[in-house]
């Protein structure tokens, strides 16, 4: 086996950190000056003020940001000795991780932060294991070398099929599919009724990840959760029958003309509109699509179901276990800050606060204690799918960690080339998977 993914993650972090530092120094030299601050105990003329903990979380999602900021503000109002200074990542940063690296380079790395690349930051020693009193509350956190480095904010509801009941009625469909053949027959009936069976927002290549994750989950990961580590070890290939089927099964939806003809020019928002207006029968997406559907057509009659695989199993995407709130290694060395972190996370997970947060983000509790909250029928349908004891679960291909971590950038590369396979059949499915084998090996060997 070649260079390990674990070694790569730490090396990439160090390289990215050095690049960010170099960029900051160039800016500083150009400006001829710098700003400075201080950390620790703050004292004014009136005496000691509350202990401050800086907190950065990922921006870009206004609903999610509002939900988190509400808890922060409530905590600050209730606490006299601690104040959380929270802010979302600034618009304009290339990526959230790049934003964090810049903060690190200028000496403004936060005391606590929302984490995406948890394993890389843990390997680099930038974040510390979270306190046991918080870790013990979590339902199924990611364990890295026997330690828990992030407290998940919530568990995401899995994607599902949202369908327009009026379109189904027009096609004479009265029953939901029990297996994949039933699903294909259902698509055919909708097409014969003069409506696109499925709408895909393929202009934004990330939208293809919904169906990609479904087919890789059903054909590969649900039965072989160690596939990524086996791939890195050289014992399996993308060109093998099961992984090849993940592409050919997906491609079949296109070759049978079950996907809207203009999918390549359809945005994610457009896809919700097409479904809402009855110009498509189904949309495979997440629970957040409901808001866009209602905005496009408040009267749309929408149902929700999980697509069955060829064996009749319900295979759903498991929520990421790696993402969550982390404590910086520097802050963890200060007992008062470590205690303040625990105080905030305990407050966050208290049912009266957590229920409000979960209701806003439409998620499930990441704690062992279940949290109930009121919601609409469609969201409850997503929740029922997530909690179905018969369902099989699989992570996204890039959500595994340790030896199962995917080489950096591979998923984006794959989705980009998949777009050509679906649109032009160039490369065809077999050629795509041959190139995937080559790319995986190449990225494994690159620091």
Automatic annotation (TrEMBL):
SUPFAM superfamilies: Periplasmic binding protein-like II (SSF53850)
Keywords: Cell membrane, Lipoprotein, Membrane, Palmitate, Signal
Stored PROSITE patterns: PROKAR_LIPOPROTEIN
UniProt key word Cytoplasm: no
Keyword Ribonucleoprotein annotated: no
Protein's name in the database: Extracellular solute-binding protein
Source organism (scientific name): Cohnella fermenti
């Amino acid at each position: 086996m070649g260079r390990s993914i674990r070694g790569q993650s730490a090396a990439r972090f160090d390289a990215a950190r050095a690049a960010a530092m170099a960029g900051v120094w160039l800016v500083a030299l150009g400006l001829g000056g710098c700003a400075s601050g201080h950390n620790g105990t703050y004292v004014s003329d009136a005496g000691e003020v509350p202990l401050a903990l800086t907190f950065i979380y990922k921006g870009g999602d206004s609903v999610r940001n509002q939900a988190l900021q509400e808890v922060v503000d409530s905590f600050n109002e209730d606490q006299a000795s601690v104040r959380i200074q929270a802010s979302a990542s600034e618009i304009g940063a290339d990526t959230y991780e790049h934003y964090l690296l810049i903060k690190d380079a200028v000496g403004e790395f936060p005391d606590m932060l929302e984490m995406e690349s948890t394993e890389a930051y843990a390997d680099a020693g930038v974040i510390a294991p979270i306190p046991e009193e918080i870790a013990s509350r979590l339902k199924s956190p990611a364990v890295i070398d026997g330690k828990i480095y992030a407290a998940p904010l919530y568990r995401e509801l899995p994607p599902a099929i949202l369908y327009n009941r009026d379109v189904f009625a027009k096609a004479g469909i009265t029953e939901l599919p029990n297996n994949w053949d039933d699903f294909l027959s259902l698509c055919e009936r909708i097409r014969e009724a003069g409506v696109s069976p499925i709408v895909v927002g393929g202009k934004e290549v990330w939208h293809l990840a919904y169906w990609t994750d479904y087919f890789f989950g059903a054909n590969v990961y649900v039965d072989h959760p160690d596939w990524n580590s086996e791939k890195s070890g050289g014992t399996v290939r993308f060109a093998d029958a099961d992984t090849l089927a993940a592409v050919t099964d997906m491609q079949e939806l296109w070759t049978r003309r079950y996907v809207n003809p203009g999918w390549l020019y359809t945005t994610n928002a457009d896809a919700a509109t097409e479904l809402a207006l009855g110009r498509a029968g189904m949309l495979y997406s997440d629970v957040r699509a409901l808001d866009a559907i209602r905005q496009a057509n408040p009267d749309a009659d929408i149902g929700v179901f999980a697509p069955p695989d060829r064996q009749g199993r319900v295979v759903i995407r498991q929520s990421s276990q790696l993402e969550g709130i982390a404590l910086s290694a520097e802050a963890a060395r200060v007992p008062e800050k470590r205690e303040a972190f625990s105080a905030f996370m305990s407050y966050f997970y208290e049912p009266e606060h957590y229920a409000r947060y979960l209701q806003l983000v439409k998620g499930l509790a990441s704690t062992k204690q279940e949290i109930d909250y009121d919601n609409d029928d469609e969201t409850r349908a997503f929740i029922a799918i997530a909690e179905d004891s018969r369902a099989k679960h699989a992570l996204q291909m890039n959500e595994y960690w340790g030896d199962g971590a995917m080489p950096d950038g591979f998923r984006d590369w794959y989705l980009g080339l998949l777009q050509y396979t679906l649109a032009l059949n160039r490369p065809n499915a077999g050629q795509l998977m041959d190139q995937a084998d080559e790319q995986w090996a190449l990225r494994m060997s690159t620091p």
